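To: structure subgroup
Subject: Chain for Friday's discussion

All,

I'm putting the inputs and outputs inline so they're searchable in the archive.
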Amino acid sequence: MGMISRVRGRIRSDSFSKIHTMKSEDKIANIVWLLSVVLLLPYWAPRGLFVALGGAWLMAAYTCLVVPVLISANYRYPARWYPAVAKLAQEVARRLRAPGACLLGMLRTAYAPLERAERLFLQMNNLSTMICQLLVFTACDKLFVSQGRLTCLYSLMFYNVITYSVSYVREICTKEDWSPYVNVTRHSRVKHLAMSATKIVLEWTKAVTFIVTITFILLTLGLEQGLEHFRPTALYTAITGTYYLLTERTFLELWPIALSAMKLERLEGMEALYCGVWARGVTTALALPLVPALAWCERWRLSILVLYVCVFMHGRHRLGEALVKMNEACDSLAKFRRATPEELSTLEDVCAVCLGSMKSARVTPCAHYFHADCLRRCLATSDRCPICVRPYVFC
């Protein structure tokens, strides 16, 4: 038994060491790839960086010194996606040689790695949202502002300050525990001194930061100091403000709450889904007319970036996912009929899920009444009635 345990431990340690070696090699490969991109940037300059600095001889010497090192380093530490790209190229070549090759299938195969990169980029929600905002703001800056050169950056800074202020005020309004102390456990009355001091310092820091930020913005706008290049027009402010309000996460969380306060029975408690579709649809529609306008002004690079990032990627993935979620919710409720006003007037009961009064409801085949949103959430976990636990049977 002792020998078996020692062998198992040795095998486990060898596997751990192999995994650690693979991870370190992957890190080195990624670093080599990034350095290669940085060192090749001079070749992508508009007129050649080294030609402008010292002529073609300097560029030739740079090529002789750097390119062999990059080739050997990438050969020694290849990135993981190199074999995938080679395999993809072989697959595309095989399909091209095949008789009757399907063009659509070949395009899908070639687009698959790019689609994975798009989804990875959109998963970094804050980064992708900020890049979309910068692209739209820069496009509006080029189209609607004639004299201001940094209007997009100033506008984004002011909008971020407003977002921070709104989120801080919301945190204060929804805060329940105003005690400056932190207990050792949830049910204990013993105070944790270090955590309590940390909490007090953090709360005061946030409050002071909020006051200083608001004061600085008011002084900047009132005295107009440092705003020589900030010349927004009314159309510029309307487009950028609408786009920002419909893409920033803080406001995306507030729109369903505001829509719920209107108590629109037609939405049936699915305000979050409808707001998601409306917000993504409006932002895609705002970015779409900017593309031909930029192309008309010969801003080709910016127009291509706006078309790909803000229209294609945003519309295909984010708007498409929001539409799929809303369609799935509507399809799951389509089998259940709406309760008539006569049925609701005679119904002296509440929703069994949320215990709220019912001004609109859906009726199950077993004659039970639920809010549409409550029923949709129950259907996501079970296909049985929450009250009588019978499976739904539709005639």
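Points worth raising on Friday:
The CA atoms of residues 269 and 373 lie 5 Å apart.
The longest strand covers residues 337-338.

D.
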